[in-house]
Amino acid sequence: MDKQLSIADKQKKLWVSITGYRALIILKALMENPCTVDELVDILKHNIVTEKSYSKDTVRISINTLKSAGCKFKRPSKKNNYTYELEFHPFGLKLTNEELNILNSLRDIVSESLNWQAVIKLNQLYEKLIKLTNNSEQIEMIYNLQPMGKINEKILYELSNPKLAGKKIQITYNSSANEKENLEVVPYKIIYENKKVYLWCYIFKYKSNTLLNIEKILKINSISIANGFEINNTYEVFYEVKNAYLNGFEIKDYEEILDIKDDSFFVKANVSNEFWFIQRILQLGSDFRIISPSFFKQKLINKIKMIQQRYKEEC
């Protein structure tokens, strides 16, 4: 109790320059949004330090003080609703290109162990941080290199809604092969990997399960009111195992050997747990070859590239 009183007494004895503090409060407010004189007065009125020292004149004095320090403002006029708008301030964060690259690398490494919701928050943190530099090139670089790319967050959150599970929805998809096309799909889950977010779903047009890059989903057109669709949430992968006898290759219960040539096995796998299947495939080292489907082949390529990049950064 005595300790708490001692701390409180010390806090009461702290001296603060009201003039400097007032200028900082106004600068902070104008960095967030343009404000009128009355709005700035109201901000000072509700601050514990400046609540007894505010007026329109003190606001104008603080604005002039900030101008003397190098700030530039748009002059209040009828055109801008008589607001003070901050155009420039010299109090930015200074980052070298080397420091910026380190920040980007750190974000890439951290984002690999996060879910997509946490990656969005990480990107928002970086966006706030880089804006402090007032450097348009660095701001653009941080934005262009962010995990998940230029994804439409509204669409992402709509697709992640549990109420969509098992329902047929129609989306507009910007595919590289067919450009914009309307697709009817049944969404299963959102998958985040290799800095991108995918929708694992069944596509009626192609009668198959596949991954769609959510960045290329332009909009959700409609949602079926039906109770749900019973669609098998698995897909088939065909692959070849070389030196099968030599390596003691053993078939799993979800796999079937279709053919044997010399020491190579041609296998069909019904994949329901993708994570464990990828682990199994990678354990074969260089003694396997994915035959189909192409989307899984590309997924594996991306995974291997990501692993290679990690080793390059550590060397």
What does it look like?
This protein is α+β, with helices and mostly antiparallel strands. It is built from ten helices and eleven strands. The protein has helices spanning 2-12, 18-32, 37-45, 56-68, 97-111, 116-131, 136-144, 153-159, 274-282, 294-314, and strands at residues 72-74, 85-88, 169-175, 179-193, 196-203, 208-213, 217-223, 235-241, 255-261, 264-271, 288-292. A five-stranded antiparallel sheet has the order 6-5-4-3-7, with no helix packed on it. The chain has a four-stranded antiparallel sheet with strand order 9-10-8-11, with helices on one face. Strand 5 and strand 6 form a beta hairpin. It is elongated. Mean pLDDT is 84; it is low at 1-8.
Q: What does the main sheet amount to?
A: 5 strands, antiparallel
The beta-strand count equals 11
Rg calc: 29 Å
How far apart the termini lie comes to 55 Å
Low-confidence stretches: 1-8
User: Strand portion, in percent?
Assistant: 15-25%
| Secondary structure category | alpha+beta
Give a brief description.
The protein is an alpha+beta fold.
Any chance you could write out the topology, listing elements then pairs?
Layout (H helix, E strand, L loop, with lengths): L1 H11 L5 H15 L4 H9 L10 H13 L3 E3 L10 E4 L8 H15 L4 H16 L4 H9 L8 H7 L9 E7 L3 E15 L2 E8 L4 E6 L3 E7 L11 E7 L13 E7 L2 E8 L2 H9 L5 E5 L1 H21 L1
Antiparallel strand pairs: 1-2, 3-4, 3-7, 4-5, 5-6, 8-10, 8-11, 9-10
Helix pairs in contact: 2-4, 6-7
